[in-house]
């Protein structure tokens, strides 16, 4: 179980523009998963409905919780849609070298228990991120593709990145390809979880693994192709490309957590809490022009697909039918 082990030990950027007087919002940026329903005094009903819905997703996707869980390169661009100044083809996302590397090899990740206070969350994030560094470095080596882990900024106060200022309303985490850095709020990751118990560490681990998944896309050229698609599309096309990016990052997160399920202590309770959380972050109730992350069903479904998948090829959202990426 988590908590029983100590923690393990100038390139042109995409055209992100900082908000300001006369500024234009970034053309594309990574928003954190949307705020789930908060638990209230009547939260028992909401919680039970969420658990039933989560188990429904598991059943639909053929995932057996009991059988699978226990009890208890830096991606730098010449310009968006290019890699090293050259256009990226669709082959980059449909037949990426990573898809042929099989499953992630377990690195025996161990994470500390999360307690109250930013220091405890900081230890947890750094321990998990170090495991992610090792896991994905090995995976890229299988594909013979250069890989440099992302930098990390785990904030407890306001700040600024090349992709914008933080925090912003509802935001707890984002990945900035302009400087290959993950940004996660030590307090905000809890605040935007809808009051999730700190004991449900899998909920917070999924957020970090998701943002890391964007760095994986960045380093493999997938993110560059996504930028290219978004530049050439109207709002409908931009959102469709964004959903494929976001849902693939969900799948990559699930693949990592599935590979490390035993040593991080991913019990049935942890798994269900994570699925309930991601289902509540779907954007199906948003206006059509803001549907850029995916429905709750698919936002959870791609985590499940990665978690139970035996190879990374299951995370190819770019050839998936529209019904699975809506």
Average pLDDT, to the nearest integer? 80
* Largest sheet properties: 3 strands, mixed
Radius of gyration equals 18 Å
Number of strands: 7
* Uncertain ranges: 1-29, 31-55, 59-82
Question: How far apart, in Å, are the first and last alpha carbons?
Answer: 35 Å
Structural class designation: mainly alpha
Whole-number tally of structural domains: 1
Strand content: 5-15%
Reading the helices and strands in chain order gives HHEEHHEEEEEHHHHHHH
Q: Please count the helical segments.
A: 11
Helix content: 40-55%
Inertia-based shape: globular
What order do the strands of the largest sheet run in, or round the barrel if closed? 3-7-6
Word description of this protein:
This protein is mostly helical and 326 residues long. The protein has one domain (43-324). 43% of the residues lie in helices and 7% in strands. The protein is built from 11 helices and 7 strands. Strands 3-7-6 form a 3-stranded mixed beta sheet. Strand 6 (173-176) and strand 7 (181-185) form a beta hairpin. Helix 6 (201-220) crosses helix 8, helix 6 packs across helix 10 and helix 7 (222-231) packs antiparallel against helix 8 (235-259).
Which labels suit this protein?
43% helix; mainly alpha; two-stranded antiparallel ribbon; single chain; globular; 326 residues; disordered N terminus
TL;DR of this structure?
With 326 residues, this protein is mostly helical. It has eleven helices and seven strands.
Helices and strands, with pairings:
Elements: H1 43-60, H2 65-68, E1 82-83, E2 86-87, H3 91-94, H4 118-142, E3 151-155, E4 159-161, E5 164-166, E6 173-176, E7 181-185, H5 188-191, H6 201-220, H7 222-231, H8 235-259, H9 261-264, H10 268-279, H11 296-308
Parallel strand pairs: 3-7
Antiparallel strand pairs: 1-2, 4-5, 6-7
Helix pairs in contact: 1-10, 4-6, 6-8, 6-10, 7-8, 8-11, 10-11
């Amino acid at each position: 179980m988590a908590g029983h082990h100590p923690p393990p030990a100038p390139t042109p950027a995409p055209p992100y523009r900082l908000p300001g007087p006369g500024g234009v919002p970034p053309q594309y940026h990574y928003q954190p998963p949307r705020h789930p329903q908060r638990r209230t005094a009547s939260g028992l009903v909401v919680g039970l409905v969420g658990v039933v819905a989560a188990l429904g997703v598991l059943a639909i996707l053929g995932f057996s919780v009991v059988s699978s869980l226990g009890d208890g390169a830096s991606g730098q661009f010449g310009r968006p849609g290019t890699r090293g100044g050259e256009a990226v083809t669709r082959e980059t996302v449909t037949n990426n070298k990573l898809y042929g590397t099989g499953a992630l090899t377990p690195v025996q990740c161990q994470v500390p228990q999360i307690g109250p206070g930013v220091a405890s969350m900081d230890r947890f994030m750094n321990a998990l991120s170090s495991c992610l560094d090792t896991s994905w470095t090995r995976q890229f080596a299988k594909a013979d593709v250069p890989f440099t882990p992302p930098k990390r900024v785990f904030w407890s106060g306001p700040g600024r990145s090349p992709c914008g200022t933080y925090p912003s309303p509802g935001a707890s985490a984002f990945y900035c390809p302009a400087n290959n850095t993950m940004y996660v709020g030590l307090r905000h990751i809890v605040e935007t979880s809808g009051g999730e118990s700190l004991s449900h560490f899998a909920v917070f681990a999924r957020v970090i693994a998701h943002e890391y998944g964007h760095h994986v896309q960045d380093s493999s050229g997938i993110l560059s192709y996504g930028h290219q698609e978004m530049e050439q599309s109207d709002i409908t096309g931009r959102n469709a490309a964004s959903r494929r990016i976001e849902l693939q990052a969900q799948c990559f997160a699930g693949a990592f957590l599935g590979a490390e399920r035993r040593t991080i202590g991913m019990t049935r309770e942890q798994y269900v809490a994570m699925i309930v959380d991601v289902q509540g972050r779907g954007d199906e109730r948003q206006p059509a022009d803001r549907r850029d992350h995916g429905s709750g069903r698919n936002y959870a479904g791609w985590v499940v697909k990665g978690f139970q998948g035996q190879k990374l090829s299951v995370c190819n959202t770019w050839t998936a039918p529209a019904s699975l990426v809506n």
